[in-house]
Amino acid sequence: xxxxxxxxxxxxxxxxxxxxxxxxxxxxxxxxxxxxxxxxxxxxxxxxxxxxxxxxxxxxxxxxxxxxxxxxxxxxxxxxxxxxxxxxxxxxxxxxxxxxxxxxxxxxxxxx
Amino acid sequence: xxxxxxxxxxxxxxxxxxxxxxxxxxxxxxxxxxxxxxxxxxxxxxxxxxxxxxxxxxxxxxxxxxxxxxxxxxxxxxxxxxxxxxxxxxxxxxxxxxxxxxxxxxxxxxx
Lengths: 112, 111
Description:
The structure holds 2 protein chains of 2 kinds.
Chain A: E1 3-7, E2 10-14, E3 19-26, E4 30-38, E5 44-49, E6 56-58, E7 61-66, E8 71-76, E9 85-93, E10 100-102, E11 106-111
Parallel strand pairs in A: 2-11
Antiparallel strand pairs in A: 1-3, 3-8, 4-5, 4-9, 6-7, 7-8, 9-10, 9-11
Chain B: E1 3-7, E2 10-13, E3 19-26, E4 33-38, E5 44-52, E6 55-58, E7 64-70, E8 73-78, E9 87-94, E10 100-102, E11 106-110
Parallel strand pairs in B: 2-11
Antiparallel strand pairs in B: 1-3, 3-8, 4-5, 4-9, 5-6, 7-8, 9-10, 9-11
């Protein structure tokens, strides 16, 4: 059965800290791994990763994929209170359905 | 432009009442469409997906059903709601570049 596991489930840090969120997966015929940020409502897209070892970066956020060890990390440097959210990892296997399997999410709280 | 609309935003329904949530997309044709549910503090659980009109696949057994009467319309229904149906329901559409565009979500509370 396809599975995505995120850790930690929750995290409390102070502004300026750096955090690393983890996502491991088991999926048949891996196609891509995606990270989303969710604040109260619908998730918003952060990154899509398909190749190992290539870092994707957007401002203070970055992510990388390891297809051999079947995991990805999401790094946030110099955290701000606006980074407080649930971070979701999802994996797509290769099928025509486009289904995404989501992890449980990591709830990040950044204190001032 | 491509957009996805989902309504209502919030809903409070008594146990045993029916449910109908609607999702429509604009600016694309023959999209893959999905219904997800998110229980409090949990990740997203796939309920149904559809790759075309009238084609519905169910991922988990439950008292919910889905229909796709038109290419860009996806409806989530129930004849009789249970307390356990409470949650945040998200409609999504699979975009060609990968991943999803999500609707704004419906927060359903069954009382």
